[in-house]
Amino acid sequence: MNVEEFRAQARDWLAEHVPREPLGSWTSPEGFARHRAWERVLFEGGYAAVDWPREYGGRGAGLFHTIAFAEEYYRAKAPARVNMGGLYLLGPILMRYGTAEQRGRWIPRLLSCADIWCQGFSEPDSGSDLASLRTQAVREGEEFVVNGQKTWTSFGGFADWIFALVRTDPEAGRENKHRGITFLCVDLRSPGVEVRPLAMVDGTKGFAEVFFTDVRVPVANAVGELGEGWRVAMSTLGFERGAVFGDHAKYSADVESFAELVRARGLAGDALALDELGRLFVATEVYRANVYRLAELAEGGADLDLRASVNKLYWTEAQHHIFAAGLDLLGGLAALGGGSPVLREALTPRAAGIWTDWHHRYWYARAAMIFGGTSEIQRNIISERLLGLPREPRR
């Protein structure tokens, strides 16, 4: 089936299946359960991972089919996806580094959302310098005994499993801190695991910190070679930083929402507001063109790892600019949450709903410029590794 035929099919399917009522915030237990049920509907319809191989539950389609589905998905205003850790990070890692047994055990369950996965990389005092992590995994026979702590774990409060970086060879780490690290999958229901939700600045609890106290994990749960987890982690960060093919459509939809806010504020004829709208539109169109270019390169076999930092820098800063522009447009109203009667009186119902959503996403957009490597780190990677410029002096 060609891309446009698939697009038409996907549009019809979404029109029939997208929930008519909002599912609520995924950061609440009830909202997360509803989002998880929606993920199951996507899986049963064959739309959970369009470009994944058929043997793993995908359609075996191309990246341009994935892009077409994403564009239709956001056009249909379908619910936010909640199994990103499994779909966009762990799944591709298992296909690249996992054993046949690991792929068969984990991939079908993460694709159907039977298992929710979270990422355990960051630790206290080990943020941008990820290789300084201190969580230890000591081998005892065919098990590791894990002790340590992970923090800022996205979806951690709702996840069933975590893929974590642990230090399995401290001696190798003394010579080179990037060595002796292993990529390990841990069942969060194991004895000795404690998950503590973290309250964010907007009051939501979608993140968590995870504590490991003498947690026993099978050695067979290590992905890739023991002690070579840094290489696996860099691939994971490449997926996290890179283009989630089709995600540009989300930002194009946000620009349309910004236009609605402009109209609601009575500024449809204001030169400054229209200039800002035009700037945001151009930025999202540039990103869309880049995603299409990368998809063409990827389908031709190109390695996109180095270009991932370009994407990370662009999409995180672009989405922040969209929400910051909305904040400036609303002025003092921007401080009000969606439940405020003042906000509802000042805006149209649709515009008030947009800002209710954006009120949360503005703060998340600021965090996006930090997680997965800060914008400053991405600029260093681009300059040194992609452009070949002199390295920044290290102390």
Task: Write structural notes for this entry.
The protein is of the alpha+beta class and 395 residues long. It folds into three domains: 3-82, no CATH class; 117-227, Butyryl-CoA Dehydrogenase, subunit A, domain 2, CATH 2.40.110; 242-387, Butyryl-CoA Dehydrogenase, subunit A, domain 3, CATH 1.20.140.10. It is 50% helix and 14% strand. A four-stranded mixed sheet has the order 1-4-5-8. Strands 2-3-7-6 form a four-stranded antiparallel sheet, with no helix packed on it. The chain is globular and about 70 Å long. 39% of the residues are buried.
Summary of the model, kept short:
This protein has 395 residues and is an alpha+beta fold. It is built from 13 helices and eight strands. Helix 10 crosses helix 12 (349-368).
List the helices and strands and how they pair.
Blueprint: H1 3-17, H2 29-45, H3 63-75, H4 84-97, H5 100-111, E1 117-120, E2 136-140, E3 143-154, E4 161-167, H6 170-175, E5 181-187, E6 193-198, E7 207-218, E8 222-223, H7 229-241, H8 248-264, H9 271-299, H10 307-330, H11 341-346, H12 349-368, H13 375-386
Parallel strand pairs: 1-4
Antiparallel strand pairs: 2-3, 3-7, 4-5, 5-8, 6-7
Helix pairs in contact: 1-3, 3-8, 4-5, 4-7, 7-10, 8-9, 8-10, 8-12, 9-10, 10-12, 10-13
